[in-house]
């Protein structure tokens, strides 16, 4: 499979990156091709809601999202990797998701596989309730086929994350993909 990992943390060596790297190592060992995109390092402006695209492109905003559109439309699987920011995905990743607007129908038709990798400082049981619900709603709306989630509680720093089971869980998720 062609797998596109949308890495939504501005910290290139942070906890989100640790989960993404472990997932990617597992998926590469299983024979998949990985494209890792640091979305926070890209120049991607928020959707203005003009709907000139008619929900199926081209988008009037000319920025780095053109590369992301090309990658997503060439993918068999999308991986959303994000730190938990106020109980949702990062704004950097949400901006990319909102820009799906200009190729919404194309994404819908593809029935892509998907997964969610996320980290948070909090370790309460309810930490990921809102993000999990949002992700599951995207899966339903965009006709994704969910392959799993790694929800890293108590992953407030890379040092904390390295001591948890979540990097190994992310590796296994990648390694066991069919
Ligand atoms: C703007 C911001 C908002 C955050 N919001 C939450 C939150 O709602 N719940 C939580 O448990 N941790 C929250 N955190 C902590 C991060 O999710 C956590 O430190 C994570 O490990 C950061 O990942 P990174 O290393 O990839 O940047 C927040 C951090 C920042 C900077």
TrEMBL record:
GO terms for molecular function: oxidoreductase activity. Pfam families: FMN_red (PF03358). It comes from the Bacteria. InterPro entries: Flavoprotein-like_sf, FMN_Rdtase-like_dom, ISF_SsuE-like. Keywords: Flavoprotein, FMN. Residues 1-114 form the NADPH-dependent FMN reductase-like domain. This is NADPH-dependent FMN reductase.
